[in-house]
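Record type: monomer structure entry
Structure origin: computed from sequence
Chain ID: A
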Amino acid sequence: MAKPRIYIDGESGTTGLEIRKRLEGRTDIEIVSIAPEKRKDPAERKKYLNACDLTILCLPDAAAREAVSYIENADVRVLDASTAHRTSEGWVYGFPEMTKDQAQKIREAKRVANPGCYPTGAISMIRPLTDAGIVPASYGLTVFAVSGYSGGGNEIIKLRDSGVPNDRIGPYCLYGIDQHHKHLPEMRVHGGLTQEPIFLPSYSCDIYRGMLVTLPLRLNELNALTGKKANAQEVHRILSERYAGQTFVKVEPLQDNLDKTYVLTPLTQNETNNLQLRVIANEEKNIVILTACLDNLGKGASGAAVQNMDIMLGL
């Protein structure tokens, strides 16, 4: 039986290189590569896009849409790592653990949109709670996040690595403050929300990769809106049941007795495809702080892409 042929359009970019690294040594697939000098040749790209079993797009949004328009072979399946199709009709969202049937949808899909890094963390915490009615769909959430500077995109990576002083580079930088961040639509749609959360992303120039996403909830306020009597134990149970048996998503034991030395870092899941969730409780104030730790280049990008590739191809 022939091995599935994989073409990575944009394999020289950050995500493409990370995917190639993760696929090194795989003997169950065949990776086909375009000659470097022809990577921007439309005719050559079109040939490769139509001659593979699965193409992985690691391109800017406009280029990803263009690549899809080149595909005429109905048998070619597409996994898009850009933002272009994450809320588009006809595309399946590539977060296999999001719902009980999401992996099956990915397995059957011709077109899959790989999730963003920040939304992977945010949606993993939000979606189980909106599905359970603990968080109303119309509720105004606030999501905080910090990542390594690779989470700021190619421009920030180039600025940081150039060593040239710049007012966009510092030990800690808050950005996306205008609430037009490109990840907001997928947080709303796949989080099961009717309005976008307030989202405050940031990056640290002292670390390259790693991500910590934080969701604070006042349960008294939510219970007044829903008529429920949810507490930290209920929130923890809902997340634990949603991700029970999953390989890459793990919910830590409920943490409700923290000492003053307790700290969280965005680094603990680096170089993995893991997503680590925590529910941290303050029983006195009936507040819970949910956190999601992941590698923004792993489960937040290339790791998720390889996981989706395997699901799509039955590997």
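Annotation 1: The first helix runs from residue 14 to 23.
Annotation 2: The mean pLDDT is 93.
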